[in-house]
Amino acid sequence: MNMLDIQLPGLDLKNPIMPASGCFGFGKEFGNLYDLNILGAIMVKATTPEPRFGNPTPRVAETSSGMLNAIGLQNPGLTNVMKDELPRLNQFDVPIIANIAGSQVEDYVTVAREISKVSNVKALELNISCPNVKEGGITFGTDPVVARKVTEAVKAVSEVPVYVKLSPNVTNIVEMAQAVEAGGADGLTMINTLMGMRFDMKTGKPILANKTGGLSGPAIKPVAIRMIYEVSQAVNIPIIGMGGIMTAEDVIEFFYAGASAVAVGTANFTDPFVCPKIIEELPVLLKKLGFNHISECTGRSWNKHAQFANHRA
Amino acid sequence: MNMLDIQLPGLDLKNPIMPASGCFGFGKEFGNLYDLNILGAIMVKATTPEPRFGNPTPRVAETSSGMLNAIGLQNPGLTNVMKDELPRLNQFDVPIIANIAGSQVEDYVTVAREISKVSNVKALELNISCPNVKEGGITFGTDPVVARKVTEAVKAVSEVPVYVKLSPNVTNIVEMAQAVEAGGADGLTMINTLMGMRFDMKTGKPILANKTGGLSGPAIKPVAIRMIYEVSQAVNIPIIGMGGIMTAEDVIEFFYAGASAVAVGTANFTDPFVCPKIIEELPVLLKKLGFNHISECTGRSWNKHAQFANHRA
Amino acid sequence: MIKNEAMKIVSQQEIAESIYELTLSGSLVSEMNQPGQFVHIKTGNGYEPLLRRPISISAIDKENNTFTMVYRAEGKGTFLLSQAKNDTEIDVLGPLGNGFTPEVAISGETALLVGGGIGVPPLYELSKRLTKLGVNVIHVLGFQNAATVFYEEKFRALGETYITTVDGSHGTKGFVTDVIDILSNSYTTIFACGPTPMLRALESAYKETKEVFLSLEERMGCGIGACFACVCHTADDPTGFQYKKVCSDGPVFRAGEVVL
Amino acid sequence: MIKNEAMKIVSQQEIAESIYELTLSGSLVSEMNQPGQFVHIKTGNGYEPLLRRPISISAIDKENNTFTMVYRAEGKGTFLLSQAKNDTEIDVLGPLGNGFTPEVAISGETALLVGGGIGVPPLYELSKRLTKLGVNVIHVLGFQNAATVFYEEKFRALGETYITTVDGSHGTKGFVTDVIDILSNSYTTIFACGPTPMLRALESAYKETKEVFLSLEERMGCGIGACFACVCHTADDPTGFQYKKVCSDGPVFRAGEVVL
Ligand SMILES: Cc1cc2nc3c(=O)[nH]c(=O)nc-3n(C[C@H](O)[C@H](O)[C@H](O)COP(=O)(O)OP(=O)(O)OC[C@H]3O[C@@H](n4cnc5c(N)ncnc54)[C@H](O)[C@@H]3O)c2cc1C
Ligand SMILES: Cc1cc2nc3c(=O)[nH]c(=O)nc-3n(C[C@H](O)[C@H](O)[C@H](O)COP(=O)(O)OP(=O)(O)OC[C@H]3O[C@@H](n4cnc5c(N)ncnc54)[C@H](O)[C@@H]3O)c2cc1C
Ligand SMILES: Cc1cc2nc3c(=O)[nH]c(=O)nc-3n(C[C@H](O)[C@H](O)[C@H](O)COP(=O)(O)O)c2cc1C
Ligand SMILES: Cc1cc2nc3c(=O)[nH]c(=O)nc-3n(C[C@H](O)[C@H](O)[C@H](O)COP(=O)(O)O)c2cc1C
Ligand code: FES
Ligand code: FES
User: Which amino acid positions bind FAD, per UniProt (chains C, D) (predicted)?
Assistant: First the structure.
């Protein structure tokens, strides 16, 4: 019996576990470590119209139970992604979610129009929440009016469903979620990183060349869980949750909060085999908790009327 | 030579280390463990006009390198605080910073007017950022207009300088800081806790009875540092920094970011002797880094013109 | 006085399924006087786990400067603790709280000691104190199943001992209250520690007729009374703002003192 | 192939001030072939430290299925690693990256190996390979002071060895370049690992006249080429978007290939 298959707009997932954007490149390197066919989906690195080098190094710093990154959306650009990176992923029977970014609405539109035509791209992830670039990125993700506008523009050209990636660096996450839902988003992915910083003891200067960076890893999990809990009760579109997932237990906690699938980011650096491990452990854990299928967990924290056919926990 | 003394509005500090509000009660319990005279100051538990029981238990939950709390401003009320708690602290030669809270502007005004008359209360800390109460608290801390209004009202009646405690749960922390500065704040304290949540694996329900709670501890340090870095460059009033401080190195990092003093919260639970330890270690660390006085560290990350008389690091 | 000490592990062993007995030595033992007090333990070196874990003192050996705890390795912190090796050090804060006062029982009378699961350990030191005072003791100890039963012989050596297991795999099948209901009513005092439903049942059944003392559990921050994490309402003001702190006013309360 | 293995500690010892030599055994050793590759190490059990630490392979012993690293215990992760005891296991990912190719040097010719501080360790396996290939080796190794010098005798056993210390407490006072400047110019190839200023100095002085190979350091996330944490510009497109990843294209590059 399959306890893990999940259907979401555009996405027919064997299981709800996928690597998060930016933490898995375009799959090439991890493909040398294990068979990517076991993944539910793959969220590839952000693509912009033009190639980008990104920020100067150092680009990562460590924090307590977390890390800061300021990669700055380095990517080979739309043309190369379509020519080299996505075709290579065709060998796998895994839906690709293309993360798209840019400095202005037209950039998003350009990338969305082209990349959504690629056959294995089953959904787009609109990155309006990258804290590490000067233009675009997070500015789109903190103003509900702007966020809605870019969502509408992308929806108008995309041939596949559009998921919008929300930034946690806002006062009111529900307002942001509702704005992009109104703009036509088919789903949400959340959360992107929290803006953070570290200084070097000796020089007194920021460790990251970009000064600030995005905080990810277990440190931010409680914030992610809280936001998904709030948003999932206020919108009618599904949520792919992320932020600090390291274990199968964490996955269940995100489902309880209201997620319908999850992405694993930073954990891939701590343990490159974390995705296969979680996929293997989930059915065992679900059985132990008394569930027949992982979908029974979604929103269990707030959904008083959820029926659990076989709940023994 | 004293390397640690710091002067701030209303506060003549032997050293810049003080326990954070809510993590030290009114000093009684820690007073049984060590001589409170060694502290720079004490930020006492929030006081509201009326006594409060706070939220149901469980009120705390653990997270990776952090904790969630939802105490809910439990306190014996203004009259009892003035009659019992503050007089007991009179035996110590330590300035008291009174943390004040309420459900409406009048509550803040009432507490500020009375408590600022107490002789050992040298400053107020306006808690407009508590995420764990239904009314007041964080609602005052996320809207700059409201924040400014309550600051002005309190300034009008307070007999001592007023520090405003900022919430990190906002899109634009600089805007909040500038609003309360315009409202007459003499200083800022930041950050309060990030809103977070955890669920129980077995029940699927929130671990905290209050559902959400405030995230504190080392997990949030990068966020605190980043916000202090941004705010300290945009205002002309001093900042007392807090959020995840565990060691003397952390203190220096907060100073580099722009803090002029710091408060230690959650760390008191991990190690009840953490404040004395940090106070002892700071001069050694400062010497090792080549500083003559801790004030040389303030804003070093962004202040290109800072002069360091004797810097060898 | 409350002290903080890096105490040496004298021995640690698994005495039942996931149940560990840990004996530590150090000068902090000289501060330990009352059964039912607890210590607050840092189970790892870094910031994870960040919070200490409250564990009851189950035996005090002043001569050898050691004390013993019995705990269940369940979550992250207690699991880490169970991995600690002999001769390494554990960071202990204690002794904390107000424990049981054996002196309320009178020599020659009988006391009933009721424990559930990991509520059993503090009763051991208490029972030793009571028997030393000449008090007759009866123990009723409840467990999940045979595999998790511990200290049965140790308690038996001190007095009459009944074991219950939920699945009936050892002793009487059912809960401690099933045994107590059919015991002769000879005891004057009840001391209990265990899950809240068990404490509630004892309180409502015996509060009026016996002297009843209950040891409570609550999630803790500081463990010393400063953070207000562990409060409960007092019984005479159940919805007001009167409160007791489990960590510093308790963990042991007289039945009827606080709202369970 | 890159593998992940819990490898057993065969030995760990402090061989100079804060400098540890750690030997691990396991089947992963069979994948190690090139000097200058590195492993990515999880130094603690929990989420803190969260990231792995890149450490060079300094010796490979295929017969005994062991390899050796030499590292400085500096920050949180390497300090934790230095506390690990014999017979416990360390989580290792590797071998990673492209190391030195000893075969570029020709038997009978001379190679100059230049190391600075914790850049010295990978040169040891390299030097063994070179001498085995019949290449003459000269080592110039720079340290802070006498207390932090390590492996002097081991290198001396393989070839001519010069030590420099910044404070002059051992060997020549100054930097490695001070010694190289006065060496006879007999070598054809330079292999170097150490601080970036040292690598830059070597590159600008010898890029045109010698074959120069440099091993770079950069802060890493994944260590396998997926996260873009460790990129550098290529020399032929210094401000464009051409790049190399230190972790998977390097850490060893030919001088002039990337911007230092
Ligand atoms: C006064 C007192 C005495 C206790 N004595 C014993 C004893 O002798 N033997 C024993 O096995 N257990 C005892 N407990 C319970 C013990 O503290 C918890 O089982 C333990 O804290 C769980 O930690 P963990 O790392 O296994 O779980 P985690 O799930 O990692 O714990 C997460 C957080 O929740 C808290 N927590 C979880 N469960 C409990 C609980 N039941 N009570 C209080 N806090 C909890 C932890 O302290 C920690 O802060 C006592 C509790 C109290 C309050
Ligand atoms: C390819 C490569 C090979 C290396 N080989 C060796 C070796 O053989 N021996 C040795 O002693 N050191 C070596 N280093 C440096 C070593 O990785 C760092 O000293 C170590 O990561 C510092 O970790 P920490 O826990 O002491 O410091 P922390 O301050 O706790 O480190 C915090 C973070 O910064 C990173 N970091 C800090 N300093 C460095 C650095 N110099 N280079 C890369 N990342 C850093 C850490 O990996 C970690 O992510 C090598 C580095 C690289 C890139
Ligand atoms: C090194 C790194 C690079 C990232 N790059 C991207 C990116 O290109 N696009 C994006 O939407 N999110 C990016 N993210 C954010 C992650 O996809 C994810 O939202 C975040 O890290 C939280 O999840 P985690 O805690 O599991 O890492 C990146 C994160 C990291 C750590
Ligand atoms: C248990 C607990 C209770 C708190 N109570 C208050 C309070 O009453 N008033 C207030 O302004 N902040 C309160 N705080 C927030 C702290 O003062 C501090 O701003 C925050 O915890 C971040 O610092 P830390 O990471 O060092 O704990 C409380 C924090 C904790 C953990
Ligand atoms: S745990 Fe802090 S008051 Fe009891
Ligand atoms: S460390 Fe991730 S690409 Fe090099």
Answer: 53-56, 70-72, 77-78
- Predicted local distance difference test score (pLDDT) of residue A136: 60
Rounded distance from Cα C119 to ligand 1 centre (Å): 11
Q: Which residues are CB-neighbours of B193 under 8 A, at least 6 positions away?
A: B69, B131, B168, B213, B214, B215, B216, B220
Looking at ligand 2, which atom is closest to the CA of residue D57? 8
- For the segment B174-188, what is each residue's pLDDT rounded down to a tens digit? 999 999 999 999 999
Contact flag C227-B71 (C-beta cutoff 8 Å): yes
Please, are residues C1 and C39 in contact by the beta-carbon 8 Å criterion?
A: no
Verify whether ligand 5 is closer than 6 Å to residue C218 (CB atom): no
C202 C-beta neighbours (distance < 10 Å), count: 25
Indicate the Cα dihedral angle D147, D150, D156, D157, nearest 10°. Answer: 140
B62 lies within 8 A of chain C by CB:
yes
C-beta A48 within 6 A of ligand 3: no
CA distance A183 to A171: 20
pLDDT value at A309 more than 60: no
Measured over the CA atoms of residue B66, residue B70, residue B76 and residue B79, the dihedral's sign is positive
pTM of the predicted model as reported, rounded to 2 decimal places: 0.96
- Give pLDDT < 50 ranges for chain C: none
CA distance D76 to chain B (A): 13
Report the pLDDT value the prediction gives residue A133, as an integer from 0 to 100.
65
Q: Tell me, what's the pLDDT at A312?
A: 37
Asked if A223's CB is within 8 angstroms of B194's CB, the reply is yes
Output the six-digit token pair for B57.
């238990």
Question: Do the beta carbons of residue C165 and residue C144 sit within 8 Å?
Answer: yes
Distance CA D49, CA A62 (A): 8
Name the β-bridge partners of A19.
Answer: A264
Q: Hey, is the C-beta of B64 within 8 angstroms of any chain D C-beta?
A: yes
Q: Is D48 on the interface with B (CB under 8 A)?
A: yes
Is A275 catalytic? The answer is no
Separation in Å, CA B166 to CA B133, B147, B173, B174, D160: 16, 9, 8, 10, 63
- Cβ neighbours of C44 in D, within 8 Å: 46
pLDDT tens-digit readout, B125-159: 999 987 766 666 667 889 999 999 999 999 999 99
Other beta carbons within 10 Å of D133: 15
* Closest approach of C88 to chain D, Cα-based (Å): 13
3-state helix, strand, coil in chain C (%, to 5): 20, 35, 40
